[in-house]
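Take a careful look at the protein record below. Let me know whether the structure tokens fit the sequence:
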Amino acid sequence: MRRAWYWSSRWLPQGWLDALRQLALFAGAYYLYRLVRGFTDGSANVAFANARDVVSIERDLGLFFEPGLQDWLQRHVPLVIDGANWMYVNSHFVVTTTFLIWLYLFRNESFYYVRNVFMIAMGLALVGYAVYPTAPPRFLPEWGFDDTVARWVGEEAADSAGVLYNPYAAVPSMHVAFALMIGVPAVQVVRTLALKVAWAIYPAVVTFVVIVTANHFWLDAALGVAVAAVSAWAASAALGRVRPHAWAWRTEIQARASA
């Protein structure tokens, strides 16, 4: 057993203890998320009122375009909606988790900064969900929104999946925030041009997906961008200065130069 532990730890950049520490941090963040869900489950009336406020803000700005866009795509290019539904259901957790694991194993010098950005962003999001629970646009058919994901996977499957997430966590859009928080670092650490281009457009694709599936307003997406930006700044300006050799942003080239 000891020999197996030793050999398996050799392919981990910092050993098993550090790997388990990272898992514990993300598991703890998820547990806090579940606690906030418990606090907001009884806030349906407030969440719907806040959603209608978002609609009012967008209408006042003359930018309440989401129902029209969704309707046009459904009538003229339904395959785009099908693709968006598939991506919404399958990509968020898989792409984010896969990238973070890859980053930890193969670009470890960059992982801890990205991890700190995620921890800060998830903390900000939890505060937002608790203070301003908001129903997603798919819960507002009276405004012309269609729950395309539920119709695509079936109501029963959608209801089953609903126990795993907070239904009133539209503001901010962490789909968009997460996409930026992995997309921007990925562009800097991957080596091939094709991958750089793919990661560069990934946040825009995710933003499009969450809007046309009526899971977020564009304003939610904009606030997700703000959360990602503030978190990146805080990770650099605060945590990166506390432990610059461990927590500051570094690419592989920068790490070799400072070694």
Notes: The first helix runs from residue 2 to 9. The radius of gyration is 20 Å. The CA atoms of residues 113 and 247 lie 5 Å apart.
